[in-house]
Amino acid sequence: MNADISPITKEKAPLILAEIKKATSVLLHCHPLPDPDSTGSAMAMKFALEQMGKKATVIQGDSAIPRAFQHFPGVLGIVKKKFSEVDLKDFDLFISIDSGSLNMISQEHPPNLPMPIETIVIDHHATNDQYGDINLVDVSAPAAAFILFQLFDMWDVSITYDMAVNLFMGIYTDTGGFKYAPTDYRVIGAAAELARLAPNFTEVIFSMENSRTKEALYFQAMALSSIETFLEDNIAIATVSYRNLVDKKIPEECIRGISISDILKSVVGWNVGISLIERQPHEIKVSLRTRDKDIFDVSRLAAVLGGGGHRAAAAAVLKMSMTDAKKLVVEKAKELYNL
């Protein structure tokens, strides 16, 4: 296994372990609008830290944990606090996982640098701001959970059933069910080992993927009925306004469970799929997906919009009207991709 671990992880693993050994109480968090990689990685790290004799606390951060994740071991014990509500004096160490910037710790109240507590960043996003005292950013990893799998191997941490479920779900979802690069033989091997340790993984996947509500379908229908194409059909955009969400009584949890941009980029000829969802008045979540990450690197588009992510999948938040947001996204796409 060690031969397949990336150089950056080999370099940073002993440094991170040394800081963990010095700590007594460790803080972990889930990023805003948490996905299974954020949630599962936080829980797996919590269990690993407890195995090392440390006190570990996971806070939910800005957003509630989706109901679809309720079968992830330990999730029901996540503390319902935002980062700004935590007294950092109660902790020796903060480990930020799957969070490429301070805004991914909290969009409502981003912490300021320097952080008042020793901070370790473990992430796989190329756009990571390297805001930690130690930064392990492995862009060859398809999920933060995969990096943790490698770290636990190097640290001789025993992966329990509870850890295996959380890590497997992080890897499974961030790879799109093993469809997206950089999924490779290492990732399949890690998933196979985690599946051996958690043989009921199919039940957890089924529970997560089949817990939708009728409101979620209404949301999907609204989004898909709004599709417009731009720049010779290279860009497809779907929009849902805050007023639409209120009128149809669509809760935030329903918005999180569906990737409209993934549906858009599945259409031949629509090279970039974009969803613009106005979660609050003049607060628009931008989700970006592409069929061709080499020509249409959406992490670049996300970056100029103030967000980040991967070449094939990225996101941003815009504080403006829907009309202005759509205009800005199209203008920036035209500039970046020479359309």
Automatic annotation (TrEMBL):
Q: Which domain of life is it from?
A: Bacteria
Q: Which Gene3D superfamilies does this one have?
A: 3.10.310.30, inorganic pyrophosphatase (n-terminal core)
SUPFAM superfamilies recorded for this chain?
Answer: DHH phosphoesterases (SSF64182)
From which source organism is this entry?
Candidatus Taylorbacteria bacterium RIFCSPHIGHO2_12_FULL_45_16
Q: What is this protein called?
A: DDH domain-containing protein
Q: Which Pfam families match?
A: DHH
Which intervals hold domain DDH?
26-171
Kindly give the InterPro entries that the UniProt entry links to this protein.
DDH_dom, DHH_sf, Oligoribo/pAp-PDE_c-di-AMP_PDE
